[in-house]
Amino acid sequence: MNIYVGNISRTATEQDLKDAFAAFGEVSSSSIIKDKFSGESRGFGFVEMPNKEEADKAIAGLNGKDLKGRPLTVNEARPRTDRPRTGGGAGGGRGGFGGGRGRY
């Protein structure tokens, strides 16, 4: 089962996550999502546990519990949905001086 973990402290490591969840059973993987430009934690991550029963116990046992000074938000991860791309960021197709109108 894939488990979403939110409100992760910036000082927490993937090993800290793995250790917390390992108290409830086998952990396949743990990851903290990082900003692609700065490399800093975005404050959430995912833990994969192969046994659903152990995963459910981990969710119940760790949701709201403190890890490195912050209460975790823990629940079953929802499947990722494809979001439509919004062309934002580049602005319109009008270039240069005066918004594409002639100079004179």
Give the secondary structure arrangement, pairings included.
Elements: E1 2-6, H1 14-22, E2 29-34, E3 41-48, H2 52-62, E4 66-67, E5 70-71, E6 73-76
Antiparallel strand pairs: 1-3, 1-6, 2-3, 4-5
Structural notes for this entry:
- The chain is an alpha+beta fold and 104 residues long.
- The chain starts with a strand and ends in a 28-residue tail after the last strand.
- It has one domain: Alpha-Beta Plaits (2-Layer Sandwich), CATH 3.30.70.
- The chain contains 2 helices and 6 strands; from the N terminus they run E-H-E-E-H-E-E-E.
- The chain is globular, with a radius of gyration of 21 Å.
- Strands 2-3-1-6 form a 4-stranded antiparallel sheet, covered by helices on one side. A two-stranded antiparallel sheet has the order 4-5.
- Profile the largest sheet: 4 strands, antiparallel
List the secondary-structure elements in sequence, H or E. EHEEHEEE
Shape: globular
Number of helices: 2
Low-pLDDT stretches are none
Helix content class: 10-25%
CATH architecture: 2-Layer Sandwich
CATH homolog superfamily: RRM (RNA recognition motif) domain
> Class by helix and strand content?
alpha+beta
Kindly list the characteristics that best describe this protein.
2 helices, Alpha-Beta Plaits, 4-stranded antiparallel sheet, 104 residues, 26% strand, alpha+beta
Task: Describe this structure in a few short sentences.
The protein is an alpha+beta fold.
